[in-house]
Amino acid sequence: MTWMSLEHIGSLVKSNLIHRIPSALKGIPNNDSKKLPNYLCEQIIKYPITSISFWNLAEKLAGIDYKYAQGLLMGVTKKNYKNYKYLFLKSFGSQFKNIFKAYCSQEADIRDIIFLMKTYRVFFDRSYFDPISKISKEFASPGQYQMTIKLTHLTFTEASHFLVEEDTLCAYFTLAYICLVTNFGNKMKWSEITKSEVINIALKLQQHGKWGKKVAAIILDECNNDAESDPLVETIYNYDYKSFREYFQKTTESSDKSHKTVIENSIWKIPTPSKKQNGITEDLSTHIESGNLLRIMAFKNDKVALTEAFMDFNGGILYPQNMLYKGHPISNLEACRIIKNYVKYNVKTGFGILRTIKVGQDKYAILYKNFEDSICQEDKELFHSLNLGDEVELKIETKTPNFYKVNIPNSTLEGFISQKDYNQLSCEEGGTVKARIAEKPLSEKAPLIFGSPLPHAIICDKKEGTAIEDGLNKLFSTIELQNIDAKDKKVVEILLAEYPSLTTSKNIEVISNNINCRFQEDMIDSQQYIQKVQDYLDKNNFWISPRVYNGEDHLIVFNQEKMLLDIVRDKNTFYTKRMDDANVSFYAQKTIDANKLTKLKIEGKNIKLYGTYDHIATDYDAEATFLFIDRLNTYFKIKYDLQKKVHSALYQSAQDFVNQVDYLKYQIDKENHRRNYKKSFDTNCLSPISGEVQGESVAIKINMSEDDYNMLSGDIDSEDSILNEIRVNTFDNVGKIIDHCILKINVEGEYILHFLGSHKNIDEYLQNGISLQGDANTKHLNIQVDALKEFTYDDQSLFRDLLGGSIATPDILNYQGIKYFNEYFNDIESNNNQPIAVKKALALPANGILLIQGPPGTGKTTTIVEIIRQLVKEKKKVLVCSQSHAAVGNIFEKLKKSGCENILRIDDEDETTDTKFFNSHDYELFLRNNLTLMERLKRGETKESDLLDGFCYSNKSISIQYIELHKKVIKYYGENMKLDTPIVRKALKELENEAESISGAMLASQIYQSKSVILGTCIGVGMNFVLKNRTINFDTVIVDEAAKANLAETIVPMRMGERYILVGDDNQLPPYVDQEEIEHMLDDADYKDKIMITKEEMVSSQNKSLFEYLHHHRHPLFPEENLVTLNYQYRMNPEIGDFISELFYDGKIKNGKGTEKQVVDIQDYPNPVTVIDTTGIKYNYEQRFNNSRLNKCEANYIKNEILPKIEPVLVNNPNLTLGIISPYTSQCEYIKSLISDKKIRESVHTIDSIQGMEFDIVIFSFVRSFSPNSNQKVGFVDDMKRLNVSLSRAKKKLIIIGNMDTLARDSAHYESLGDGLKPLDVFKKLANMPTKISIIKTQLEKFLSFNIEIGTIFDNCKWELSNRLRGFIKINFIYQNEEFSFNMKVRDRFFESKQPDEKLSLKYRGLNKDSKPYFGFSDTYEEIAFSFNTVEFEGEVVSCEGKDIEIKIGQNLFRGKVKNIQNNSIMPNTKYYFVKRLMNSIEINWDKCFEHFVDNHTTGDKVEGTVSGKMKLDNNLVLYFIHSEGYTCSCASREYLEEKSLHTFIYSRHDNEKKRIYLKYFLSYDM
C-alpha cells in the first residue's frame, strides 16, 4: 500500500468512519506502518473524534500491534490534547485495561509500559499489577519496580512478597529502597509498615542466595545502627559487607552525571539520612563538620535543595527533614519556609555535613541545619514580645543584590529588609537603623521581615483610626465584625489604610484600574490581531482573579462565553501569557473552574493590549496594580468565608425558624396533594338553591358524604380555620378547570356550592352532573416561608441585629411632656408602666423593636389604642395585626369609639372594612351594574326585580349594601326623569368611562394610601393584594396577642414596616401546635431523612412565638430598654389579683384603682378565691373518653352544689357573666349535657378558647384525679401558661374544684427544669389555701373539729389486730355520735395480757409529728407496761440494788433499770417521781421530787431523813446529805451523825435556781 493509503486513512478520520481503520491497516507496508501512529495523531487532532470512537480505536489497534496504540496514546498526550485522557476517567476504563493487557501480552518494552503508567497514573489500581508481573523480570532498574508498585497501589506486604519472589538483584535493591530510603514506607503511604516488619522481610531475604543475604545485611544494618553487636549481621560479614554497600549505592544511583538530574529524578531520589526518633544518630555525629557558610542555589518542589560547591564537593544536598531543632526535625512546612527565605534573600548560612554520596564522578554532601543553640530563652521572649508594626532597631550583617540581612543588636534574631525599604530609612548612630516589622513568622527560628514588602499591620493616628473603623462598619455588618478573625480584620484595615476611597465606591468589586499588558513573544504579535482582540475586550465585561503560580503573579480574566486571558506580571510589566477558549480547551476550562469563585469584575475596555515594541507609560506601576487587585480579592475571600461562617452561626441560632420553614413546606406539599383528589356527582346529587337575598351569587346544593368533604378539604384542622368553608374547582372531562367555587356547610349541615362571579348559568351542571377537585391554597404558606427566610438571612434583618447585640433602643427624653388622648393616663398610679410603654413606642428608632408584656387585665388594648392615636397625631402610618380576628376586631371597635378616624380594617384576603365593606372587584362591578341599570331605566322598565336582575356580588353583606345603592339610583331617576336627555347621556358616558378605565388595584391602593391605620390578621395582611407587594410602607407595625402567634405569623406583617411593637404575654397560651400532624410529618418518608430532629424539638419550635424568642434571648441578652411590663391590673378583685401575681409574676403585678369594687356575694363562697378539694370522695377518679378526659364527680358537684348558689345571683344581676372552664373538651361537653339553661350552657369553655376573655365568676374544673398508686402524670394541666390563663379570667369570684391530693402529688408531675415557680408549687399552694373546702371531711378533720382536750379519757374502746409484726392495733370508739378508728402501737406484752374482746380505757395525748392523734392507756401501770409513750408517774421504791429497781404502783410491782441515781442512793419505802422513756429504762424526775417536797412543807416543819453521805467543811463543820421524802437535802452541823441512821431535822429554806433544800439538825436517836 502506498502513501495514498495513509491519506485514505486520514479521509476515514475526517469522515468519522473510525470503525473501518483497523481493517484498512492490514495492507500497510512495514515502512509506512512506522509513520502510522504520528499520522493518526495529527489527523485526530485536526479532525477531533468522539471519546468513545477514540478509545474503541485504541483498543483495536492494541490488538493488532501495541505500538500503534502506544503511538496514538502518547501522541495525543505529548501534543497536549488531553481531552481523551481525562474523559477516560468517566467511561473508558475497560478499554484502557484491554490496551494495557495487550501491551503486556505482546512483551512490550518495559520502558513503554512505565511511560504509559506515568502518563495515566490516576487511572491505575491493583488489578493492573497481574499483567505487569508476568514480564517483571525484564525490569531494568529499581525505579521501574518502584513506579509499578506505587501506581498499582500495592500494600507493603504485597510489594515485599512480590520483590522477594522475583529473586533478582534489581528487585532486592528495590526492596531495600522501599524499606529504608522511604523511612519505613512513609513516602509510599503504607500505614502498616513498621521497623519490625522490615526486619522480618530482611530475615526472609536471607534465604535467597548471596545477593539476598547481602541486601538483607544492609537492611538490618540500617534498622539497627549498632551493626557490630548484631549477631545476624556478624554472621554474614564474610560476604564482604562494606564493599557490597558501595556497590549497592552505585547501582541504585542514577547513571546521569549532573547533580540537577539527581535532584529532579522523580523515580529514584537520593537516599535520605537514617535517623532515630530522638534526632541524629550517634554514629553520624562523628561526621558532622559545622561552620560551612553556603548559599542555596535552588529548592525543587519543596523536596530537595542544592547549595553551591564548597571544599571538594560539587554541592550540598539539603532535605527539609534535615532541618532540626535540638536534634529533632521541625515541621516540614516551617522547614520549607526557612529554606525558601534562604533562596529568596540569597544569603549564606551555616550547615553541618551529615554524610557524603557519589553520583557518577561527582561528590555531594548531605547537609543538615540544627538550631539547637542558636536561640536562647531571652531571645525567645524577645521574639514573642514583638508584634506586627513594632519599630525595631536593626544592624546590617550582609548585603545581597536585592536585600539586606539584618539582626537585632544583642540578640540572635535575624531578618531581611529590601534595599528599597532600607533606602527610605535614616541611619542612626552606630550604623543601626529603625524599621517596622512587616511580617512575623510562626517560629523564632525563621527570619523576620522588616519594611513593607507585604505589610500586615498599619500605624495611623487617631483620625485615620476612626476612618478605618468607619470603613469596617461600611464593609461588614455588625454580626460579621463580631465573627471576623483578628488576622483577617488586620488585612482589611491595611486595605482601608492604603485605599481609603474603597468605602465610598458604589461597586467595590469592579476594578477601575487599567491593566496595560504586552503580548509575549511566542504569541501572535501583529497589530491587526491585537486590535481584533482589543475590540472583543472593549465590548465585554469580565471576571478577574489574581493568582500566584510557581512564584509568578497571574491575573486570570474570563467571561460568560468562557474566553480566557492569562496575564502574568514580570517585575513592572504585564504580559499576555495565554489566550484560550474553554469551549474547546480542557486547560482553559480547568483554569476557569479553579477561579470561578472570584467576586472581582473588570470592564474589558480597562484591559489595554500592547505589541512587543509599543510604548507603555513609564509611570505605570504593574506591581501596585496587581497588589491592589490581590488585596481586594483577599477582602472578598475574607468576606465570603465570613458570610459562610455567619450563615452557619445564623443557621444554628435560627434552628427554631428553620424547623418552622420545614413544617410549612410539609404543609405546602400536603395542600398540593389535595389537587389529586377529584370527585364527580351525578344529577341525582344536585339541586338548585337561591340566594338568601337579592343579588347574592347562585349556588347548588350537593348531597355528599362527610368523607368526600374531608378529602376535598384536605382534612384541614387548625385553631383559627373556618372548617365549614373551603375552596374547590369544577373541571371538565379533560381535566380543565371551569369555575372557581366555595363549598360551604350551612346551619342545617347541608353542603352548598357557591359560584364566584355573576350571571352564572348552572343549568348545564344540573343536567349533566358536576366534578369537583380541591383548590390547593398555598399562598399563605409560601408567604410565611418567604418571611422566615428573609428575617433570618437578610443582611439588614432584625435577627442579625439581635445576634449582633445591636437592637436599637428608644430614648424617651423628648416625650416627657406628652399630652394623652385618654384622660385615664392623666390620673394613673405614679409607678404605672403604661405611660412608659406609650413613650417608648413613640421614641422607637428605625428598625427598633419594643416588647410590651401585658399580664391579664393590665390594659394592653387601652395602651395599644393610645399608642396608635399618638402615632397618627405625628402623621405616622400604622399597621395593626393579630393572629386572631377577635383581637383585631376588639382594637378596631375601641379605635372607633375613641374617635380615631381614617382607619381601615382588612377582614381577609379580599374583604376590607372602612365602617363599610369595600372590595375593588365588587366596586368595579357596581359601576358596570349601575350603567346597565341606567340603560334599563332609559328603556322604560319600572319593575324593581327586572331592573336588578343578574346583579350579583361576592357575598351577602356586600350584596345588601350595593343593592340598596342601586335602589337609590332607581328612586333618584324616578324623581328626576324630566332631566334633559343630553345631560343624562353625558352622565352615562362619564360613568361608562369610569367603569372601563378604573383599576381595582389602583383604586384600592389609593384608598389604602389615604388611611392612617390599617388593621388585619397577620396572614391576612400578608396575602392582601395591595399590601403583599409592600407598595405601602408603614412607620410602625403593632402585633397584638404576639405571644400567641407563631414565628412566621408575627414576621409576615413586620416585613411591611420600619418599627415593630409586639404586645402580648408569654406567660399565657403559646401558639397552637398540631402535634398529630407533626408526628405524621416526621413519619413521612420524604421528610424522615431530611429533618433530623425529634418530635419534642419540632413541637418546641412551633410552640414558640417571636415575642417569647426575643424576651428570653440570652446570647446576647435582649435589651431591657426595649421591654416594658404593664404592672397594674384592673380586671380582678385584689385577692384574685394578688393570687395571680404571686403565682405567675413574682408578685410584680399590683392592683389598680377600682379593683376593690370587683365583688359579688355567693352563698357558701364568701371569699374571692375558693378551692374545693374532692380528695376523699368515692368515685372521684377521672375517665378517658374520645382521646380526652372527664371527671363526673367534679361535673356533678358543679351542677348540683355550685350552680344552684350562683344562679340566683345571675337572675338578680343579669349583667354578671359566668365562665365554666376546663382543660378538656370531653369535660366541657359533659358539663353542658348536665345543664338545661342555654345561657349557662354557652358559658362552658376550654382553656384554649378563652385567652383575652374575662368573666365576673369563674368555675374551673381541673379534671385530673387518679390513685396514689398510679404512675400517671397530670399531662398538659402541668403547664404554667395554661394555669395562668385558666385562673386569671375571673374578675370577682374564682371557684376551683379538683383533687388536690392528685394535683399536689410529686409523682404526678414531670421534673421541671429552670428557675422560678413550677406547676407543682402552684398546686401545693392551692392545696394549702386557707379558703380550701373539703367536700367530705376525713375522720381526722372531723376528730380535730371537736377540739378535744389533751388528757380526755375514752372508755370502752374496742380493739382489733392491725399489724402484729409491726406491733399495731386498731382502736375504735364513739365520740358525740361519731365513730372513729385510729392505729395505735403497743408492746408485745400487750398481746400476752389482753384478749380481743376486752375493752380498753385510753387517754388522748395530742398530735404526733405527723399531725395525727395518738393515745395512751389511762391506767399508769398499763401505760408503762404496754405503750411506747413517755410516762410520768409516782411510785414507792421497794428495793434498789445498783441500777436495778423495783417500784410499787398501787398494787402492781414494776421492775426496771434506773438511769439517774442522785448520790448513787435511793431509799426503799420512799416515794419518788419517775419518767419512763424506753422499754425498761426509767429515770427519777428530781425536779418533780423537789417541787413535791417544797409544796408540802413550810419553814420550821420537822422532817425525818436518813444520812446518805457527808463532807468535812471548815471550823469543824460537816456537811451531811440527808434523804428525806424522795429528795436529797443538805444539813451543816458540828454534831456527829452516823451514816444510814434516821434523824429528825428542821426544814430551813430552799433554793429554786439550784434546786437545793437546806435542813437543820434537831434530834438524834438510834434506829
Q: How many helical stretches?
A: 58
**What percent of the residues sit in helical stretches (DSSP H or I)?**
25-40%
What is the radius of gyration? 52 Å
Widest sheet: strand ordering: 31-30-29-32-28-33-34-27-35
Overall 3D shape: extended
Beta-strand residue fraction: 15-25%
Main beta-sheet strand count, sense and barrel state: 9 strands, mixed
Detail the poorly predicted runs: 78-92, 182-189, 225-290, 453-464, 716-723, 908-918
N-end to C-end Cα span: 168 Å
Based on secondary structure, the structural category is alpha/beta
Number of strands: 60
| Overall pLDDT metric | 76
Q: Mind sketching the topology for me?
A:
Elements (H helix, E strand, L loop, with lengths): L2 H12 L6 H4 L5 H4 L2 H11 L4 H14 L1 H13 L4 H9 L1 H13 L4 H10 L9 H5 L8 H10 L4 H11 L2 H13 L13 H11 L3 H15 L7 H5 L5 H12 L6 H6 L17 H4 L6 E9 L3 E4 L7 E11 L2 E2 L2 H14 L2 E12 L2 E9 L6 H9 L5 E9 L3 E5 L6 E5 H5 L8 E8 L8 E3 L11 H14 L2 H6 L2 H13 L11 E2 L3 E5 L7 H12 L2 E9 L2 E7 L4 E8 L2 E9 L4 H10 L5 E3 L3 E4 L11 H32 L1 H19 L4 E4 L4 E4 L9 E4 L3 H8 L11 E7 L5 E9 L5 E5 L7 H6 L1 E5 L4 H15 L4 H6 L30 H9 L6 E5 L6 H14 L4 E5 L2 H13 L5 E4 L5 E2 L3 E2 L1 H20 L4 H4 L8 H20 L5 H17 L2 H11 L2 E5 H6 L10 E7 L6 H8 L2 E8 L10 H9 L1 H4 L6 H8 ...
Parallel strand pairs: 3-6, 9-11, 12-18, 13-17, 13-19, 27-34, 27-35, 28-32, 28-33, 29-32, 33-34, 36-37, 38-44, 38-45, 41-42, 41-43, 43-44, 53-55, 58-60
Antiparallel strand pairs: 1-2, 1-5, 2-3, 3-4, 5-6, 7-8, 7-10, 8-9, 10-11, 14-15, 14-18, 15-16, 16-17, 20-26, 21-22, 22-25, 23-24, 23-26, 24-25, 29-30, 30-31, 39-40, 46-47, 46-49, 47-48, 49-50, 51-52, 51-54, 52-53, 54-55, 56-57, 56-59, 57-58, 59-60
Helix pairs in contact: 1-4, 4-6, 5-6, 5-7, 5-8, 9-11, 11-13, 12-13, 13-15, 14-15, 15-17, 23-25, 25-28, 29-32, 29-46, 32-43, 34-35, 35-36, 37-39, 37-40, 37-41, 49-50
